[in-house]
Structure formats: C-alpha cells, structure tokens
TrEMBL record, chain A:
<dbReference type="InterPro" id="IPR051626">
    <property type="entry name" value="Oxidoreductase_gamma_subunit"/>
</dbReference>
<dbReference type="InterPro" id="IPR002869">
    <property type="entry name" value="Pyrv_flavodox_OxRed_cen"/>
</dbReference>
<feature type="domain" description="Pyruvate/ketoisovalerate oxidoreductase catalytic">
    <location>
        <begin position="13"/>
        <end position="187"/>
    </location>
</feature>
<dbReference type="InterPro" id="IPR019752">
    <property type="entry name" value="Pyrv/ketoisovalerate_OxRed_cat"/>
</dbReference>
<dbReference type="Pfam" id="PF01558">
    <property type="entry name" value="POR"/>
</dbReference>
<keyword id="KW-0670">Pyruvate</keyword>
<keyword id="KW-0560">Oxidoreductase</keyword>
From TrEMBL, chain B:
<keyword id="KW-0408">Iron</keyword>
<dbReference type="Pfam" id="PF14697">
    <property type="entry name" value="Fer4_21"/>
</dbReference>
<keyword id="KW-0479">Metal-binding</keyword>
<dbReference type="InterPro" id="IPR011898">
    <property type="entry name" value="PorD_KorD"/>
</dbReference>
<dbReference type="GO" id="GO:0016625">
    <property type="term" value="F:oxidoreductase activity, acting on the aldehyde or oxo group of donors, iron-sulfur protein as acceptor"/>
</dbReference>
<keyword id="KW-0677">Repeat</keyword>
<dbReference type="InterPro" id="IPR017896">
    <property type="entry name" value="4Fe4S_Fe-S-bd"/>
</dbReference>
UniProtKB/TrEMBL annotation, chain C:
<keyword id="KW-0560">Oxidoreductase</keyword>
<dbReference type="GO" id="GO:0019752">
    <property type="term" value="P:carboxylic acid metabolic process"/>
</dbReference>
<dbReference type="InterPro" id="IPR050722">
    <property type="entry name" value="Pyruvate:ferred/Flavod_OxRd"/>
</dbReference>
<dbReference type="Pfam" id="PF01855">
    <property type="entry name" value="POR_N"/>
</dbReference>
<dbReference type="InterPro" id="IPR002880">
    <property type="entry name" value="Pyrv_Fd/Flavodoxin_OxRdtase_N"/>
</dbReference>
<feature type="domain" description="Pyruvate flavodoxin/ferredoxin oxidoreductase pyrimidine binding">
    <location>
        <begin position="15"/>
        <end position="240"/>
    </location>
</feature>
<dbReference type="Pfam" id="PF17147">
    <property type="entry name" value="PFOR_II"/>
</dbReference>
Amino acid sequence: MDNTVEIRWHGRGGQGAKTAALLFGEAALSLGKFIQAFPEYGPERMGAPVASFNRISTEPIRLHCSITNPGIVIVLDQTLMGKVDVTEGLPATGILIVNTTDSPAEVRAKLKLQGLKVFTVDASGISKATIGRDIPNTPLLGALVKASNLLDFASMLKDTEEKLAIKFKSKPEIVKGNIEAIKRAYNEVKGE
Amino acid sequence: MSQQKKPGWKELAIGDILPAGTAEKFETGDWRSERPTWHPERCIHCLFCWVNCPDTSIIVENGKMTGIDMKHCKGCGICAKECPVKPDKAITMGPER
Amino acid sequence: MAKFVAKTGNEAMAEAMRQINPDVVAAYPITPATEVVMIFAKYVADGLVNTEYVPVESEHSAMSACVGASAAGGRVMTGTSSQGLVYMYEILPIASALRLPIVMCEVNRAISGPINIHCDHSDTMAARDFGWIQIFSENSQEAYDSLIQAVRIAENHDVLLPTMVTTDGFIISHCLDKIEVLDDKDITAFIGKDRKPNNSLLDLDKPTTLGSIDLQDYYFEHRVQVAEAIKNSKKTIIEVANEFAKKFGRQYGLIEEYKLADADYAIVALGSTCGTAKVVIDELRAKGIKAGLLKIRVYRPFPAEEIAQALSKIKNVAVLDRADGWAGQGGPAYAEIKAALYKSKTPPKMINFVYGLGGREIDKDQLAHVYDCLKNIEQQPDVQYLGVRE
C-alpha cells in the first residue's frame, strides 16, 4: 500500500472529471504503473458536483473499496470550493491542485487550510487559449504530473499525444491544442 | 402409467431433443367420437377444410382434396363446419362406429 | 501478441466477446452492464466480428432469442444485470434444460426494490437454482479470463450448460484496471473456431423437435440429466482452467485460498471484496494475526467438498454474503457452506455477515472488524448485517 498513490478529482457533471481520471490512468499504465480509475456514480446531471478517483501503484492493485484518504485532490472547478469539502480525508502531507486564477496563498486563505501543498493553475484560461473551449481536465494532467512527480513528463506527453492522435484522427488541431495545454499547465502551475 | 419398460436418464436423448415429426407416429384417430365423411361428388376443392383442419388430416394431392387421414383425424368437425358447399356440404359428420 | 491495456470490467468483457466472435448476440442494455453490449454492438457495426446482433425489446426476448439461436447450433452470448436478469428468469431454466451452452456476461447489481443500480449479488444469487454454471470475478482480468474459459466449459459435450460470468457492478464493471489481453488467434485456438453442436434446428437433413411436453413418465429423467451435468461440470471447469493456465499462465480453480492453510481466522467471500480482503489479510499478518481468505470463484456447481476440505482446518470462519437469503438465516453462501460442513468431523465455528447490499461500501476497516469479531466468535450472533445503521 505504501507504493500506491490515491487521487480524487472534483468537478461538475460534464466537465470531464471522469475522463481526466481515465486519461491519467491510461498514461500511468503506459509508463509501467498498475492503475485504477473509477468515477463516483450517482444521478448523471450536468453541473452537479461529481468526483472520480485514481489509484496508481508500482504493484498490482487489489483494493476494491472507495478512496477516502487520497494523497492528492484536484479541483476542476473553483466554484465547488466551500460547497464541497474538497480537502475531506486529505492528510496534512497531501497535495491540493486547483483550477483557478488565484494564487496558492489565496486558496489557502479562502479555505483556511493548514499543512498541505497547494498548487494552482488557470487550467480554464489555458484550455480556452489552446483548445478554444473551457475543458480544464487535460491541462490539469500536466499540473498533476508537475505537482506529484508521479510520472516522467516527457514520456507522459508522448503517450497522451499518441492516444489523442488515434482518437482525433481527422482533427489534428485538437491534438495539438491539448498537448499545448498540458505543456503550458505543467510550466505555469504554481505551488507552495 | 404404462407398465412397459421405459428408458432411464442415461439412455434418453439429452435435453429431450428428439427427431422431428414424431406426431405422425401418434395415432390420434382413435380419439374420435364423431367421424367425417367426404362426398367427392359435391366437393369444389376450395381447400377450406385443408386450411382449417387443426391436425393436418385433409389429404391434398396436386391441389385437390383426395380424402381424410383417419389415423390422425380427431373428429372435431371443423372441416364440415367450414365447408361452403350448399345446400349439402361436401363433408358431413356422423357418429363413429 | 498478448498486451497489457487499461480496461474497465465492461470493456474487458466486451473485448473477450469480440475475440470469442459469437454467431449471435441478443441483448437489451441495462445499467451497469450497458457498456458490455454497447461496445460489442459497435464491433458488430464496424465489421470486427461476424456476429448477428439482435437488438430485442426486453431481456425476456433476449434470452428467448438466445435459446433459439443456440438451438440452431450457434455460439451465443448475451449480457445483463439485475432486473434484466430477473426478467430472464422464465427462460433461464429452459436454456439449461435444452442443454444450450449460452454464455452470459452478468454484472451483479441489487434487485428492486427499492430501486438501486449498485452492486450486490442478489440478482445472481436468485438465479442460482436454474441449472446455469455461475462464475464470479474478483477483477476485470478474472472476468476476461473466465469469459473465455466459459465458452469451452459450456460447449463441452459432457457439460452443455449455459454459463454466466459475473463482475461486481460499478466496482469492477466501471473501474479502469490494468489487464492482459491475449492474442486473438490464441483465443480462437483455445475455444475452437466454431461450436460443434450435437444437433441443430437448422439441420434440414436431421430435423429435431425441441421443447416437447415431458410429463410424469419422462420429466424427472431429463431433470436428473441436468443434475448430473452440473455435478460433472466441476471436472471440466478444472480441466479448462488447467489448460488455460498452461497456455496463458493464470491459474484458476473452483475456489481460491489466500493464506488460508495456517489461518486461525478466515473469511469466505465472492467477487471484488476478495481483493480488498487480501490487502487486509496482509496488514493483519504483519501484526502477527493469522488471517486468511477462501474465495469462491465458481458458485454453481457449488464446490461443497472443496470448501469443506479447506475450512475443516480452520478454527473460526466468517462467511460474507452480498445477498440475503430472505430465509431468516442469513445469506445463501452461509446456508450452503453450513450444509457442506455437516459431515465434517472438524467443522469450524462459523458466523455470517450479510454486507454491501445496494452498493453499501465495504472497506478495509469493516473487513478488519470482521476478523476482530472472529476473535470472540462465541459472543457473536449467528447472522449480522455489516455496516447497516441500527
């Protein structure tokens, strides 16, 4: 279990929290990890708060229970903070990554956080600039890799590009935009 | 139940899957209490009897009614009821003897 | 080449179906099994399989169409869950009575009511007495491997019984996991390109009658044939598992023992809970507590002798049932394991926990609590509902 990192993604229905967990799981698998990715299932309503999860490990994963004490929490939508207890179960050594234009200090102040490593990145702004739409999940993959050091960034980027190239065969501009978004988030994420 | 020796489960075809058409071997004709009689001189070969017979007991050759399969006819009388020939029908029912 | 890929339980089952390439699939989608047939339908539309896909209007019709297609000699599959399986109940025993080797992907989900879409074993457990072979899966890999084995088992002429392979709804069906997908050619070689039926409704040179009336003088014999077939299927299940292990390296059996041989305390469970239990066992053993697990993989035929043998060495046992038997005596596995141990000279002390109904969380703490209860088993009630609010 010491070799397993547990991650929780917070988003709203339709924002891609589930897809983010799946994409990150697949990228980690390609880089030799054992993985799980699963959403929290409930009524499917656009805009309602949702969560999804990852386990990433160097050993086969046998646990099939919920994740209640993640080491990393990622918030796709800053308006969830205060409405959803995004740091629930997160230990003092945990990592919180938020899609926001605020600085880590501002997030820390707003949520009255103690301990934790807090990272912020304007994933929505980046995705609008690179992909043309507010889909913050792909840039957040870059921020997650930077903040967690779980995967080798260059390898992860290459793998994601290959996967997207298959998925969006007829739309190379989408692949280019997504890769650019991940790179920018990796470089622009700020932590303290 | 019949006293004759019946096959055990090891001998029986699995799943009760049997050759098709075994109904032919079951002579339901002895269930009859009424008996149809065909009057060929009145028959117009409309084949209403053939269409309606629930036991496929109307024998037809080359599109013409040629008789009744008495081994299987149960004597239900539908053929006589459906026969449209007037004033006297081409199939009539009478008591089985 | 076999390769490691990320697949959910549903995707793993759909992938196995693609490789099995059945002649006919008739199905009606239902949560959480929807993706199995949805993904497969795409394979059909994309021409990746030669399957005739029958999109029926209900599960009753799905199973009826499967019966017809299997009677015609085809290799036939379907997928369902919960109310869908319940809606098939009328046809399930006909499939086994006609000895049709239909293979089903069943995703375990609570049956209504109240309405619930999450995992428990009540749907599959209620179908346990219909003459179907039932195989439970701990994870996606097992579901994939067992589905491939199921084709061989079901179609074996000593067996000829329909077979369902189950995953736990959402917990496995929707969890992306790392699995090894085998080479298409190896699967074809393992299961054989086509089913080799004894007879076929479409064989005009040898026409057959199916489903004829079977009264006092013959019905009993035909039911005994099914009883014998399911009893004998144990041998085939083991043979197929051994051949699978030899070819592909993963060994399966009727049951799986995890650190059981020297265990003081053991739990018995089915499905995904077994994985979590293994982690708990490792943690307890690190603290010097001799904990163990008996996983039941094959629930029908019921491996009574194997279970009795494995548990007769253990002092204290808790049986975990993810379904109630509605009999006032706990869950179905508990009742059957008690019966299996009736003739044991050294039966363990045993209690029952009914847990996880309607997807109620089962985590490490709860499983550790079960092992804790086994330390003072005399003070425990015969049956407890684990994790329910009083």
